[in-house]
């Protein structure tokens, strides 16, 4: 049975042209880009081209791009650099719904004595801008807010938030790992100082990412070693991964608009179809301002993990908004921050699409999911009690 992959916010398929671009760097073109000889030098030139391709996708210039190993490294490098640049400032502002790449880091920094403010969101996952404004103080070293939420797809107004931070002289970082390649970004028109992206979320390979650092921003390296990346990130570059990331960015820049239209149409068909055919279901997050490929849907009175297991029997891949911790199912911090009721949050499933999904796949999913939910609800004492009360 064919796999129907609707988990593209977890990772994406490497695009065939990306793989093709990468392959020579595993065989003929294995030189070290820092070498003095021309064999290494030609790889150095390929990295330069990739840097330009990444920069072009986000409206930056090539020397503002530092290659890293992943989105997590980019996030860590940005936040730690800001704290290093402003050692007297001990306050970090972030949100309650960040990815663990930021959230776990700031918790760790809190233990080391930094003060962390996590801005709340409303029940649609939208950032509380009033709370954000009053959270900024002369002691704030950095603001780190995600551009797009990985679970709900909801977008934060990071450009507006960055402008507010700039007016107060505070550095602004955005985790744009889910946004880059999915929505237009032009760093030339924002006040954002640093931006993280990750290759495997936009049809490049795993193990490669980038950090945009605006020209003139004080920056100190996270990985200290050789003088690769102009001394901003030690370590021999992942040359094949970087060349692939460049190609993926070039493709995203060329195809974003038509691809988004198609992906959004499939996402909306899936979402509307499920809401229509399954009672007591609802979308989590602001449907009007989110990524075109993502929908988080809650099916009341069922466990998300159980839904995933039954979907897996049909080779349908998605992910749930709950996580099994020490034997008990906890709804995700994102859904909790949005105040999604427990009976809904437990049964939440994230479907995230890509350009490789087809209408036939969506029809198949629309055919299978209602039966899965009905079967599980038949086993749920809460659903049956609820029905008895209602009837
Ligand atoms: N930030 C966000 C919003 C993400 O969704 C992810 C990955 O899911 C990351 C950061 C981490 O990226 P990576 O897997 O490249 O470390």
Give the overall silhouette: globular
| Major sheet description | 7 strands, mixed
Please trace the helix and strand order, writing H or E for each element: EHHEHEHEHEHEEEHHEEHEEEEHHEHH
In the CATH hierarchy, the third-tier topology of the largest domain is known as Aspartate Aminotransferase, domain 2
Task: Round the mean pLDDT to the nearest integer and report it.
Answer: 95
By DSSP, the count of extended strands is 15
**Beta-strand fraction estimate:** 15-25%
Estimate the helix proportion, in percent.
Answer: 40-55%
Helix/sheet category: alpha/beta
The helix tally amounts to 13
- Going by CATH, the architecture of the largest domain would be 3-Layer(aba) Sandwich
Low-pLDDT runs of 5+ residues are none
* End-to-end gap: 40 Å
Structural domains: how many: 2
Rg over CA atoms, rounded to whole Å, is: 22 Å
- Spell out which ligands are present: pyridoxal-5'-phosphate
Write up this protein.
A hairpin with a 2-residue loop joins β13 and β14 (328-331). The chain has two domains: 4-11 and 256-390, Alpha-Beta Complex (Aspartate Aminotransferase, domain 1); 16-254, Aspartate Aminotransferase, domain 2 (3-Layer(aba) Sandwich). The chain has helices at 16-22, 38-57, 71-85, 100-111, 129-135, 158-167, 228-231, 239-277, 304-313, 333-337, 342-345, 359-379, 381-390; strands at 4-5, 65-68, 91-95, 115-119, 140-146, 171-175, 194-198, 209-213, 281-283, 294-299, 316-317, 319-320, 322-325, 328-331, 348-352. The two termini are 40 Å apart. The strands form four sheets. A seven-stranded mixed beta sheet has the order 2-8-7-6-5-3-4, sandwiched between helices. It is an alpha/beta fold and 391 residues long. The longest helix is centred in the middle third of the chain and has 39 residues, at 239-277. Bound molecules: pyridoxal-5'-phosphate (PLP). Pyridoxal-5'-phosphate (PLP) binds at residues 70-72, 99, 101, 146, 150, 175, 177-178, 198, 209. Pyridoxal-5'-phosphate (PLP) binds next to α3.
């Amino acid at each position: 049975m064919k796999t129907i992959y609707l988990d593209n916010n977890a990772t994406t398929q490497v695009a065939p042209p990306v793989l093709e671009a990468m392959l020579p760097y595993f065989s003929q073109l294995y030189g070290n880009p820092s070498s003095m000889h021309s064999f290494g030098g030609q790889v150095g030139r390929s990295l330069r081209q990739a840097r330009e391709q990444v920069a072009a996708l986000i409206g930056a210039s090539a020397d503002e791009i530092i290659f890293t190993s992943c989105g997590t490294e980019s996030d860590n490098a940005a936040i730690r650099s800001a704290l290093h640049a402003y050692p007297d400032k001990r306050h970090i502002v972030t949100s309650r719904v960040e990815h663990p790449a930021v959230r776990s880091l700031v918790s760790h920094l809190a233990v080391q004595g930094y003060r962390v403010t996590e801005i709340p969101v409303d029940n649609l996952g939208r950032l509380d801008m009033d709370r954000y404004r009053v959270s900024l103080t002369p002691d704030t070293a950095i603001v780190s807010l995600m551009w797009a939420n990985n679970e709900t797809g909801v977008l934060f107004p990071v450009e507006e938030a960055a402008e507010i931070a700039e007016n107060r002289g505070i550095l602004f970082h955005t985790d744009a790992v889910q946004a880059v390649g999915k929505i237009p970004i032009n760093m030339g028109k924002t006040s954002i100082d640093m931006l993280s992206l990750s290759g495997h979320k936009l049809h490049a390979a795993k193990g490669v990412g980038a950090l945009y650092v605006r020209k003139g921003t004080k920056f100190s390296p996270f990985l200290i070693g050789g003088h690769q990346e102009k001394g901003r990130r030690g370590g021999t570059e992942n040359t094949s991964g970087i060349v692939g990331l460049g190609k993926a960015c070039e493709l995203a820049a060329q195809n974003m608009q038509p691809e988004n239209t198609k992906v959004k149409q499939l996402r909306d068909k899936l979402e509307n179809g499920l809401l229509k055919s399954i009672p007591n279901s609802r979308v989590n997050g602001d449907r009007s301002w989110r990524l075109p490929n993502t929908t988080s849907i809650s099916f009341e009175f069922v466990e998300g993990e159980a839904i995933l297991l039954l979907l897996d029997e049909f080779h349908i891949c998605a992910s749930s908004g709950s996580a099994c911790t020490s034997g008990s199912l906890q709804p995700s911090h994102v859904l909790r921050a949005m105040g999604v009721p427990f009976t809904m949050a437990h049964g939440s499933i994230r479907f995230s699409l890509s350009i490789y999904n087809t209408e036939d796949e969506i029809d198949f999913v629309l055919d299978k999911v209602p039966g899965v939910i009905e079967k599980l609800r038949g086993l749920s004492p809460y659903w049956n009690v609820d029905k008895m009360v209602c009837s």
